[in-house]
Write a structure and sequence with these properties.
Layout: H1 19-29, H2 39-53, H3 63-76, H4 94-107, H5 112-132, H6 142-170, H7 180-196, H8 198-203, E1 205-208, E2 214-218, H9 220-251, H10 255-258, H11 264-284, E3 290-294, H12 295-301, H13 303-312, E4 320-324
Antiparallel strand pairs: 1-2, 3-4
Amino acid sequence: MSTEKRIDITQPLWDQNTFVGRFRHFAFISNPLLTFVPEKQLYEARDLYMKYKAGEEPEGTTMAQVVRAKQLYESAFHPDSGELQNVFGRMSFQMPGGCLATGAMLQWYRSATAVVFWQWVNQSFNALVNYTNRNANAPLTTTQMGVAYVSAMTAAMSTALTFKFVIQKRATNPILARFVPFVAVAAANWVNIPLMRQNEILLGLDVTDESGKVIGKSQVAPIKGISQVVTSRIVMCAPGMLLLPVIMERIEPKPWMQRIKRGHILVQTAIVGMFLTFMVPTACALFPQRCKLSIDTIKRFEKENYEEILKNTSGKPPKYVYFNKGL
């Protein structure tokens, strides 16, 4: 492919300084169809990705093959460790996995038993996603993972049950009960993700200058990154969990819906799936993946880390440091 212009395969194909560019990038790697690509094909894509990166791709390799290899590699392999990710924790599985869990939570919300069970299912799925997309340079112990999982489960279930009983006693509009799952999921995200990534805060994240050279660590950086990830996750599920109750409240009395009562879960799951297909890349694109932090913030809150950065930059630190915020 000597006649074709080469690309930097390690960089996104679209401008990450714009929302549209980030949306196109995440739509590219979170396509639900990528979930069904065989493992053998994923490893073949990784091999071509690595060979192209080293300038050693086989003769006759086309740009289309390179772009496809890039898509498969970035959708399935961890960006830090390079390990093949669990299929259920990949961003490409967010739509199928999320629509099943969300559809069930919105369908079966009337009994306390159903609320507890489906919150457990959803938080188990979320814990897997958070672990799969963790920063591999700050590994968690088994105890830390267990505490994060149990804490998120407790937050989700206690929030859901509290709101459910309060609404049942005081609310006059029955549609309010349908919003309980969203409140519980939002509360649990603020517990689950920070705890699953706690070592990033405790140990600090590597930060780089604009050229990508590691110049030190920061404990404030992961706080900013995790906050953005939590916000994105809540935005990701918000349209489906907030608009679907209104939609179902309107269409459930319809004669055709009354004839397929057992099929309501399928209707809700399909609608949630449509929302998530669009919202997964939208939410991921809200903030740049390569997050930046002012050096003045580190100077103010992290004296030791600031001194280390000063040392590593010969007393001339950059105005901003950069780090990967995670997903």
